[in-house]
Amino acid sequence: MQLVAEDSLNIGFDETENQKMIAQMVKDFGEKEIRPKMMEWDETQEFPVEVFKKMGELGLMGVLVPEAYGGSGFGYLEYITAIIGISKIDGSIGLSLAAHNSLCTNHILQFASEEQKQHYLPKLATGEWIGAWGLTEPNTGSDAGNMRTVAVQDGDYYVINGAKNFITHGKSGNVAVVIVRTGERGDSHGMTAFIIEKGTPGFTSGKKENKLGMRASETAELIFTDCRVHKSQMIGSLGDGFVQALKVLDGGRISIAALSVGIAQGAYEAALAYSQQREQFNQAISKFQGISFKLAEMATKVEAAKLLTLRAGDLKNRGKSVTKESAMAKLYASEIAVEVANDAVQVFGGYGYIKDFPAEKYYRDAKLCTIGEGTSEIQKLVISRSLLK
Amino acid sequence: MKILVCITHVPDTTSKINFTDNNTRFNTAGVQFIIGPYDDYSLARAIEIKEATPGATVTVLNVGPADTEPTIRKALSVGADDAVRINAEPTDSFFVAKQIAEHAKSIGYDLILMGRESIDYNSGVVHGIVGELLGWPSVSPVMKLDIEGTKAKLAREIEGGKEFLEVNLPFVAGCQEPIAEWKIPNMRGIMSARTKPLKVVEPVSVDSGVKLQQFELPPPKGAVKMIAADNVAELVTLLKNEAKVL
């Protein structure tokens, strides 16, 4: 639950002065520190750690973390603005920023003890440490309740064996929040979350994935081999892990929705600019209805997705349940991100297919959004459950 | 040490410029405003000096109506301590310089920094006039500025080279790159900018000698004609008959 001061609440979703300043700040930062190198990172799959350190200095690594723990102390609307702004330039940096803020950091912020918060949040919120979060396993994606990574108690320690995959910052993360089974398979109270630091004996990272898009965002495997973790590293109580994870994901979906809006907006703006410069048959191609109507549809979809996302963020600020609303925002925004990026490639024509122009990267990056942190199908499951209950 | 940084509120460098009211008013519709880029360099240097000088403060000043306040808040977000807005439409350089000088007299600053010129009217004379009105030295364009006690060491660009100067405080400097790198605010700066003091001061009356009559846009750029490198005769003919510069 994240409650903010009354003046941060914004029913009409007009951009506040703070949001405008944040949008400008991330744009200035992204144009200077991300855009010049992003195609190189994309090509070589380099995860640019130094960019995240700099974002830490700007307060972007702990947007929702209260100032008392070294964070920026803003609410979800400002957080959404920051994620959209970075993702408009580079979705893979946006994804890593979102995962750091909303999964690892937010899990600790929402459910960890005061002592754990004081120890970990200042490091995470300032970007001194990069966070990872592990739920998914090779054989259990959407069906996370059947996870096979197991923690067995041995005195004051838990011994963990198993593997988590598709983990953002699986190699470079300094700390990971990992949900493992401590009870029966399929029992929603049979799983527990632990905070595990890099360097803990038995905790290593495995293969780094070679991905279609989001290539500057590191995705790797976490491997646990007789990894002994002290009970003081447990978040909340034994058996709380899965319920905590679902709540973290409620907020996480807002992140992925914002990421999707950013990618869609970036693709749309690139197509809009290109259509006004590119001439065919002696006029700008934007003068042809085939293009202008496409632009109209793209802009409308981006706007609608943004409003759904802000709406979910506003409810979250008010401490209300956002399970349905964040799933709706994530479902719609991610689907339109793919559509809008696809349309952008089409507007660019042949130039949309080559890497010297921006459209193809949005197209590759966008597809992650309908899959990560719950596929579109899972979002529909979440939405329909809440409609039919 | 008290530093005053004067900022302009100017159209973003990529803005499309056009006019309304029979070409007598700049059309601000759809235009995004920013801190003048040269002013932004001077602000960045002022913040650096402040951070290196215990007890130093930076005040930002803008002569403008209420809608310049977001631009002023941006300056506060990168680290200025407080701000003053002289509540008047800036009509010409003398008017603006007079407002700055009157305010400076009432406070007593050690240093006044601003950009070498604004990027809207680009007159580049306000720092000189402020210096004159206060009886202080003024230097422009300053590319390096280091404070050493009651003196400052400056480097400025001159025709064909650089000039190195030593100036006693207080003085006025018009700044340009590479005096400092533009500062990007952090989230905490953005949050605190809202609560930092922004004082609104009414202007002193100025008998201004300048009246704006009309704006005119430069003629659109024509197409470029490419001439083969060895075809000197055609180049001369075109320069004579089309460009009419020979």
UniProtKB/TrEMBL annotation, chain A:
Q: What is its EC number?
A: 1.3.8.10
Q: Known InterPro entries for this protein?
A: Acyl-CoA_DH_CS, Acyl-CoA_Oxase/DH_mid-dom, Acyl-CoA_Oxase/DH_mid-dom_sf, AcylCo_DH-like_C, AcylCo_DH/oxidase_C, AcylCoA_DH/ox_N, AcylCoA_DH/ox_N_sf, AcylCoA_DH/oxidase_NM_dom_sf
Say which enzyme class the record assigns: oxidoreductase
Listed A to Z, the keywords are: FAD, Flavoprotein, Oxidoreductase
Q: Which Gene3D superfamilies match?
A: Acyl-CoA dehydrogenase/oxidase, N-terminal domain, Butyryl-CoA Dehydrogenase, subunit A, domain 2, Butyryl-CoA Dehydrogenase, subunit A, domain 3
A Pfam family (short name) is: Acyl-CoA_dh_1
Asked if the record carries the keyword Flavoprotein, the reply is yes
* Limits of the Acyl-CoA oxidase/dehydrogenase middle domain: 133-227
Q: What cofactor requirement does the entry state?
A: FAD
UniProt domain Acyl-CoA dehydrogenase/oxidase N-terminal: residue ranges: 16-128
Which one of the record's GO molecular function terms can you name?
acyl-CoA dehydrogenase activity
* Domain Acyl-CoA dehydrogenase/oxidase C-terminal residues, every copy: 239-388
Query: Can you tell which superkingdom this protein's organism belongs to?
Result: Bacteria
Q: What protein family does this chain belong to?
A: Belongs to the acyl-CoA dehydrogenase family.
What is this protein's record name? Answer: Cyclohex-1-ene-1-carbonyl-CoA dehydrogenase
Automatic annotation (TrEMBL), chain B:
Membrane-traversing stretches: none
Q: Name the Pfam families for this protein.
A: ETF
Asked if Mitochondrion is a keyword of the record, the answer is no
Keywords noted in UniProt: Electron transport, Transport
Task: Mention any one GO cellular component term assigned to this protein in its UniProt record.
Answer: cytosol
- Entry-linked Gene3D superfamilies: HUPs
Q: Which GO terms describe its molecular function?
A: electron transfer activity
Q: Would the keyword Transport be found if you checked this record's keyword annotation?
A: yes
Segments forming domain Electron transfer flavoprotein alpha/beta-subunit N-terminal: 23-210
By sequence similarity, the record places it as follows:
Belongs to the ETF beta-subunit/FixA family.
Q: What is this protein called?
A: Electron transfer flavoprotein subunit beta
